[in-house]
Amino acid sequence: MAKSKDKIREIVVLSGKGGTGKTSLTASFSALASSAVLADCDVDAADLHLVLPPTVLEKHEFISGYEATIDPSICTRCGICQRQCAFEAIDQPDGTGYAVNPVRCEGCGVCVRLCPVQAIAFTDRVCGQWMVSQTRNGPMVHAHLYAAAENSGKLVTLVRKEARRIAHAEGRSLVLVDGPPGIGCPVIASLTGADAMVLVTEPSLSGRHDMKRLITLARQFAIPVFVCVNKFDVDEQQSKAIELDCAGIEGVHYAGSIPYDEQVVKAQIAALSPVEFSQGKTSEAIKHIWELIWSRM
Ligand code: SF4
Ligand code: SF4
Question: Which fold has domain 9-53+136-295?
């Protein structure tokens, strides 16, 4: 099928768990694609910047919801807020005065409304940061969610939206998303409206199980899935079983397998993707996988 020149394709690279080679593969694809914007949506443990060192151009706060703060100079210590907070988020650290525990505060605003002397401020909650950077393989949008902050799904949506905006503005044809691991809310946020999922798995029973869960999710979004088996030669029987699993599912394509290769670790240490680091068997395998995926987009 001929590609529309104006359409931006969005490819999301996912795996059932961390450490399967997802980020190395995303970085390799960005080197092979001529015109990509990268979106690192693994906002709880972003690591694309380790293989694609960024020059940060813009830095923004990620604000989501509100948090309450008690002003001790106004508080009369009546205790109403503590009794009424359904989340047990108001402590008495010194046994008398009251203070909001920011980790437990859900930002519901009940205490703010009930405080008889307006001693409680209700301010935007800064949950993290997001950045626009330049890398050697194109622009990258990436983010960092602060410890104990929630709403990573909302941050994933923001990172993708910004990456698409840059792709439009710069006339780039591809948004490459390094997705979060697992199948939770951030993964759903990374798939909504995407054009394809690249599923990276390892040849093991748990790898097959995770793969099937992600395929079930992709089918709910009606997007094609391209499966890659990393370190396929660690267990060739399981690798074959994965290939057979894919053959029996509509919309799922077996894109290829990548051998175990110590060059991948050396590439990571050199802050390079495998295809940029060496021209061996791993590079060749990844190139074939990318050509197959891009030809079907
Ligand atoms: S309701 Fe207001 S005045 Fe009463 S303890 Fe809480 S902050 Fe202090
Ligand atoms: S905003 Fe809601 S959750 Fe937070 S301290 Fe007040 S009552 Fe508790």
Answer: Rossmann fold (3.40.50)
